[in-house]
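Quarterly update from the structural biology core.
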Amino acid sequence: MLLGLLHDLAKRPDLALFTTCSSDEIAREISQMPQVRCRSVTSSNEERTVIEEWGPQLDAALVIAPEFDGILQNRCHWLRSLGLRLLNADETALELASDKLKTDQICREHQIPTIPTCTVSQCDQRQPPWLPLVVKLRDGAGSLEMEILTSEEQWRTFCRRTDRDRFLVQPYLAGRSLSVSGLLEEGVVRHLFPIGEQLFSRSDPVSYVGGKIPARDVPEQAIHQLVTQTARALPGLSGWTGFDILLPETSPQSPLLIEVNPRLTTSSLGYRAVCQENLGNWILNPRREPSPTFQGTVTFSASGEFSVSGDGLTSGAMETVRR
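Predicted structure, tokenized:
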């Protein structure tokens, strides 16, 4: 995600780019971009020292980080404390969207259709509330520590070994897993991109393996309405935002919100591969008009490898990143 964004932004001769990086491999790739100044860091304290040093030279910043363990929230907080303009959601929206239970509660208050959700501690430890069911972290990202439980014994074993307030419980609903990303500004959807299909491995544990854009035969209008409702319920959402959605097998025209990802998502790799313009321009300025155009179909993996069809192009990760 970082490499893709930097390659897009580096096409702008008017920009000077700064980034930290904890991966030597990615740092070597970034070193080939003369417009980008990169500093390798090994801890959050070292990262903060570097950012404070750069602070006076920066006009805006974008945090690319997962929600779990407060990583995204904490970095956004201290960057704002330096007086930087962030291209991320505000602190209230980050707190709500990073906690799947709080997101569910907000949605229910605003009558936004979601999957029934509770914490493990709110359930009878001897008897599962549903079977089969899904357990996942309240602040997880990318299906981290997600499991599908299919028996009472699995449920009781899970309850004995887990921190009951950190995990959520939901009924397992068969259907299609979708996602859609867009650029928001204070809860207003400025641009919504094509709807994509999410791909999961159903082994133990469940794992996110990638996606395909665009998804075929989906109720676009209903999904767009769901996203708009959710954005209004979380008015601090800004910048790149992803929405995970389920089309239940029993009612495929009635989408359910699964969660909100208030950050740059893995699907950004897919979107930039089929975007006909420099997607970085819209990330910098969500008010930019008209909306970006997308052509072709892309299938991508969680590790960043993908192929594009429909426009005569088939590429691997690094080839496409350099487009």
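The chain has eleven helices and 16 strands.
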